[in-house]
Every structure is written in structure tokens, then in C-alpha cells.
Amino acid sequence: MNESNEKAAMPRHIAIIMDGNGRWAEKSGKIRVKGHEAGAQTVDRIVSLCAEIGVEVLTLYAFSSENWQRPALEVAALMRLLRHYLKRETKRLIEQGIRLHAIGRLDRLEPKVRKELEEACQKTAAGKKMTLNLAISYGGRDEICDAVQTLCRKVQSGELECDAIDDELLTAHLDTATLPDPDIMIRTGGEYRISNFLLWQLAYTELYFSDTLWPDFAKAELMQIIDNFQRRERRFGRVLN
Ligand code: IPE
Ligand code: IPE
Ligand code: MG
Question: Is 215 in the pocket of ligand 1 (CB under 6 A)?
């Protein structure tokens, strides 16, 4: 427990696996896409809350490299929701000082979706309050492979010595290079797994698994998680006095 009287620090970076949309819809006899629509509303609420309370980076796992294998209709619906989100929210993100950033294999997106995403990132680039980092077409293994390929090319061209490759250099070649590692990782939806999310970056992240389905995830639960985080002792492998 953190017994100090100092004001407990706000986590700098919160990462969320937003899971459970499909089950939320199926529970009330609706099609899965309705769950994704409800989940998009939760995104609005949680983004605003995190910006208000002073979180620096919020990473949301929106679409995994494996999610491409879902039925084409569901993939299309998720892409449509992403485009609606960008259309609806870009102005508000600018007003709230939120910078949009995206990680993942964006070259797999349809060109028009990718273009709209890149435009939204550019338009919000001056935001200083928070970075909203969307993981789209993202897989932790893909990300590590891409970084390794870049490093290999540098070794091949003589720009880099093999022995110079260390934790810091690999970190600097990931999609998240400019972002701190997550302090908190939350997975909603009741599953206890990482599903290829931020495999490298989660090394010392505090993990939270919630049974709440993402569309039902609310402010109170996030505040409870942050409160719990502020009481945890992070040792990073050391012994603390
Ligand atoms: C998470 O909800 C959203 C995405 C993966 C895009 P799911 O669609 O995985 O919902 P469940 O897990 O089937 O309930
Ligand atoms: C993880 O959820 C991916 C996202 C939330 C975007 P999944 O529903 O795809 O993961 P699994 O299939 O339960 O591992
Ligand atoms: Mg799921």
C-alpha cells in the first residue's frame, strides 16, 4: 500500500481493451453491431473523463489484427463506426485539446478510412491536454516484427551495429515510440487475456480485468480502478523499504 500523505499520482497512460460489445447486444436480442454502436458512446464518455482528470495518454484497442477475420459485414460496420466517430468527434477533440494518434497496420484500412483517420490526426495535432491513441488493425506481434525488420534493415545498410539493439532502441522503433508505457491496462468483458495488445509495452503495467461489458462501463468504475492503482505498490522488480 502507498501510505504516503502525498497526493497520489494520476496514471499517465491508461490502455483499454474495450471488450464485450457483441455479448451486450446479444443479451437483449439485438445484432452485434448494436453493441458496437453502444460501445462507441462509452468511448465518448471515457475519453472526456480521462481528459478532464488529467490522464496524458488514453490508448483504446478498437480493432485487432485478428478482428479482420470476423464476418465481412461486422468488419464493415466497425469501419463505418470509426468513420462516424472521426466525423462526429474531430471538432470536439480539438475543442478539448485532445490529440488523436493511431497505431497498427493502417495500410490494411480502406484508403478512404485511412485518409480520414490521418486527416483527423493532423487536425488535432496541436492538442496538448491528452493523446487519444487508437489501436486499429493493431497486433502486438505485428508491431514487434515491423520494428525488428526496420532494425535489421539498418544493420544491413551499416547504419547500426547489431550489439546496439537494446530495450530502448526497440522501444523507439515501435508504433508507440513517442508514448510512455501504460500504467494501467483495463480489459472489460470478463476475459482474462491480452489478445495481442501492447505485448512489449505492458511489461510492468498494472492489470485490471472487469466483468462489465464495454457498453456498460461507466465513470464510477474507472475512478475505482484509478483509486486502486494509486494504492498499489509498484516495485519494478526491486525491493522497496
Ligand atoms: C469488442 O467487443 C469490440 C471489438 C473487438 C471490435 P466484441 O465484439 O469482441 O464483443 P464480444 O467479446 O463478442 O462480446
Ligand atoms: C480484443 O477483443 C480486441 C479488441 C477489443 C479490439 P477480441 O474480442 O477480439 O479478443 P478475443 O477474441 O476475445 O481474444
Ligand atoms: Mg470480444
Answer: no
